[in-house]
Amino acid sequence: MKPKQAFHIFLFLSFYIFLSLAKENVRTAIPQQFGEAPKFYNAPECPSIIHATNNLFDDDSNYNNNNNYICSDEAIHVAMTLDVTYIRGSMAAILSTLQHTSCPQNVFFHFVASASANAPLRTTIASSFPYLKFQIYRFHDTTVAGLISTSIRSALDCPLNYARSYLANLLPLCVGKVVYLDSDLVLVDDIAKLAATPLGDNKVLAAPEYCNANFTSYFTPTFWSNPSLSLTFANRKACYFNTGVMVIDLDRWRAGDYTTKIEEWMELQKRMRIYNLGSLPPFLLVFAGNIAPVDHRWNQHGLGGDNFRGLCRDLHPGPVSLLHWSGKGKPWARLDANRPCPLDALWAPYDLLKPPFSFDS
């Protein structure tokens, strides 16, 4: 190869790499800017966690100096996924969690994010919550890319939606119990109450159950017409539960290798279509009818409407500790479009987004 040709090839490859990196940066950049949340302090009766620090560190950092905190049973461990699309909702969920708990300094957040978006999300969280104790774990799309089947709504096909199935693998082994929360919700009660949900002698997770829902609708006729599949629920009073709010015993999850059990159902779904939704049905197949109960007040779900039109909905009867905009409609999108639902006004006070005119202030 002549030197001139080699030089041209070098220029072409360099330009290609530059464009690829620029495209990735655009894809993972966070266009919004958020205000700083106030610092919240523990009540006098909160348990003390010795040698706890409020250092910020990511999954490449050595967190040995923070083991007293991250491994503490006194800490309230909360797991959430983070992505650029839903970061505004995540910020509101974090703020509401801290604002309504008696021991905010004892809350430790475990965030799972796509590897490509790790850095900008970490910066955003740290800027708005400089006192927050958290760790970010990289989730590689390739972990589930070959297992995901198309569902009724494209947003449900995002690999990060399946990260909740891998928490036991991602979080440190010393973390034995975690509260998993979706990004489209706010708490109006103390998360410590939810975290204290008893799991009994053998239950792996706890969540509010909705036995009045049409459970058969979550699976296809192909599933129900196959006795070897439909017998999965034999001897189980299987009821629908929403996976956006769960209390999970990670030790029992690891011991039972439940990630593999979920993956096996996803592999079957690739061969024969047995459900139409995304990450929910595998959870139902593995756990429905065998979870610890949680009061319905801890997941007033469905406020985002259905998966097609996202129409406004009312609260379920009874008290409320957590509002959840599951479904197509998200409160921040409806507020921005000046077409809010009445209950979206309950989400708005937790919105940390800076208005455009204040970006330079």
TrEMBL record:
EC number from the UniProt entry: 2.4.1.-
Transmembrane segments: none
Keyword vocabulary terms for this entry: Glycoprotein, Glycosyltransferase, Membrane, Signal, Signal-anchor, Transferase, Transmembrane, Transmembrane helix
Intracellular or extracellular location(s): Endomembrane system
GO cellular component terms, A-Z: Golgi apparatus
Leader sequence residues: 1-22
Pathway(s) per entry: Glycan metabolism; pectin biosynthesis
GO MF annotation: an example: glycosyltransferase activity
Family recorded in the similarity comment: Belongs to the glycosyltransferase 8 family.
Family matches, as PANTHER family: GALACTURONOSYLTRANSFERASE-LIKE 1-RELATED, GLYCOSYLTRANSFERASE 8 DOMAIN-CONTAINING PROTEIN
Protein name (database record): Hexosyltransferase
Source organism: Fraxinus pennsylvanica
